[in-house]
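Report of the visiting student (M.T.), summer placement. My assignment was to run the structure pipeline on a short list of targets and document each run. The first record concerns Pre-C2HC domain-containing protein.
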Amino acid sequence: PPKNERPFKVVIKGLGKFFDTDDLKEKIINHGFTVNKVVRLTQQRTKLPLPFYLVELVKTPNVQDIFKIERISRLKITVEDFKGRQQFTQCFNCNCFGHSAAGCGYRPRCLKCGGAHRTNSCPTKERISNPRCINCNKEGHVASYRGCEAFPKLINRQQKRTPRTFNSNQAKIQENITFSQLFKNNSNVQVAPPAVQTQEKITQPIELLTMKNEITEIMNAFTELKKAISEIPQLFEAAKIMKTVNSPADKIAVLFAHLCQSVESESK
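After the run finished, the structure tokens were exported:
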């Protein structure tokens, strides 16, 4: 049915596993709500009862007030939105997947007869004993049947994972095997890693210290260059012209010419 005609579903927690569903329905009606049904939820695999109760309400103006109920039969409860299992949206208008009727731009398709009208407007009111699916064109089910080959399938996260196998024989480590012996036999043998040398521990801090000193020198050079450009504006103009020439000799000539201009302007 359209979204505005669907029941409003909530889950009530805090009543234990064995609270009478008829009693719960009556108490919710006494709070001023119109209740379609109350169902105790069960585990999907074991079918054992859970301490959660699914309540379907008619969408009346006060339906949101259901979240304000804090106690039933003196038991403290919590009311939460019902979050059903993950599924694909099927359009009520064209019966395709991935969008709703509100944003559908396709022509209507009837779920029953396949005609160019919505299912609720179908002239065939009685149930069809052997329907033909309008998505896979096979008989025996309608397009909303989850077992249909055209119905989208959800991929479990565990199915997405690539299984990893472990071979204990390939993972064996043999010591004292040379590199040439290893590839001469073309065997799947792992060579034992060499002992950690203390020289590596000593070399690493020295390399970091050297790199730090080099970075400091570069930063100092940039600072001096920035100071020189601020004091000698001709250097900035020279740098822009040097980008247009290729040979080092031409670049030096441009730089020298601008420095000479700077000296001449200061002497004046």
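Helices lie at 21-30, 157-160, 179-184, 198-231, 234-242, 248-267. The mean pLDDT is 79. I thank the supervising group for their guidance throughout the placement.
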